[in-house]
Fold DNA-binding MarR family transcriptional regulator.
Amino acid sequence: MTTPLLVLDDFLPYRLSFTSNLVSDTIARAYESLFGLSIPEWRLVTVVAETGGITQAAIGVRTRMDKVTVSRAAIALVERGLMARTPNAEDRRSHLLRLTPEGESLYAAVAPKAIELERRIFSAFQPEELAQFAAMLRRIDERAVSAAG
């Protein structure tokens, strides 16, 4: 019995990772040059803007970033005055991260740029293709979670 040949470029988990890294690197260069933000920092700003206040642990769950990455990004954003830690009334052991007025201004400037960059990357695809792709990614997420559990 021969072992089937694994062709990395045809292996879907690799293709997902490769494409994700390629898109992330493109976005990272834009965010760094325009706003001085790393990808983890941008993700934190966005999640905090969407929620109005969230714990670091919840950010990790929501973004699939590890605790150290979330913590470093939060520290950097607090030090820059873009985010503040406030007491969490629901759990006194944790704090909520909230955007400061400066953070809200940054988000207001970055969000349209993010949407424009997304449009440029995906403009070659029809809306129906993008909807199918997004739905498929969500299904892959579900399958990956169930396969890991």
User: Anything to note?
Assistant: Residues 12-35 form the longest helix (24 residues). The mean pLDDT is 93.
